[in-house]
Design goal:
The structure is a homodimer.
Chain A (H helix, E strand, L loop, with lengths): L4 H13 L6 E2 L2 H7 L4 H13 L3 E4 L5 E4 L8 H9 L28 H18 L3 H11 L2 H14 L1 E2 L6
Antiparallel strand pairs in A: 1-4, 2-3
Helix pairs in contact in A: 1-3, 1-4, 2-3
């Protein structure tokens, strides 16, 4: 049971985009470089975020990415679901309907007790991630980071960010 | 993000063992046959349950498995951890310490806000599964299954169960 590294990378990248000045974007290569990550794999995560409507991008020489919504409206579950998909981690294969004591289909209209318990646990996981937004992460980060580190990040951002003139979606 | 089929199979097998008469066990092959599952893969799950101390087994011609504890003392998390391991699903690789704005190691003694949020969500998932025991599953199953289905299961169990004479662990 493992959450892909893509989720970690996408959440960090989105957290960085949350600090961008209004109307500015970062290129995929810059977002990768910020954490020394492989550009191609970072681009893949950004495409997933874009497909889910969490980031907007502009193409071409000045192509870049920025959040498509306020940071307070993007939860860690939104990003996890964008990268990993929202399928349940526990995939019931209805084995209760197999074998010498198979349950009859008419008695299997509701999920079995085991599948229901895993579904509840996954809901608890999702609810926990839904309760944390990029806005929360940014506020906590700012509260716990040395001032000079925050200054360094804003300097880097202002040197790398470019206007996102033609937002394509 | 996926929980292996082995977890589903192990929970179903353990739920069946919870219905065994005192001192009786089921062979791995019978536990596999009960849900028409591949015997070798079922045996692998049983070994994982055994290694975690959740089932006891006896070797030899009469080898079999039964629960090592009361059903009320075995949670769905116990079984999940036995089969999947208890490592976190979100594996923080500390990418905050990379790149042009790398955080300093001395400022990274606590998990970053992102890793902490995923850790809390996983704890919610675990807590939810810890709150459900095989005893609960059995009681819910009995309450929601037709009487003739329960009778059928007990008949099958009494024809397949054998005394577990030499419990090896």
């Amino acid at each position: 049971m493992q959450i892909s590294k893509g989720v970690e990378w996408a959440v960090h990248a989105a957290s960085l985009m949350a600090a961008l000045p209004e109307g500015q974007g970062l290129k995929a290569a810059a977002l990768a470089r910020y954490h020394e990550l492989p550009a191609a794999y970072m681009a893949k995560q950004l495409q997933a975020l874009s497909k889910a409507g969490l980031v907007q991008s502009s193409r071409g020489a000045n192509g870049g990415y920025r959040l498509a919504k306020p940071a307070a409206d993007i939860s860690l579950w939104d990003i996890t679901a964008a990268v990993e998909g929202a399928k349940p981690a526990f995939r019931c294969t209805e084995i209760r309907q197999n074998g010498p004591c198979a349950a009859k289909p008419k008695d299997c209209k509701n999920p079995c007790q085991i599948a229901a318990a895993f579904s509840a646990a996954e809901q608890a996981f999702r609810d926990s991630l839904k309760a944390v937004t990029l806005g929360d992460i940014g506020a906590q980060f700012a509260a716990h980071s040395p001032q000079e580190h925050l200054l360094h990040i804003f300097q880097w951002l202002s040197s790398e960010a470019e206007p996102l003139s033609q937002a394509d979606g």
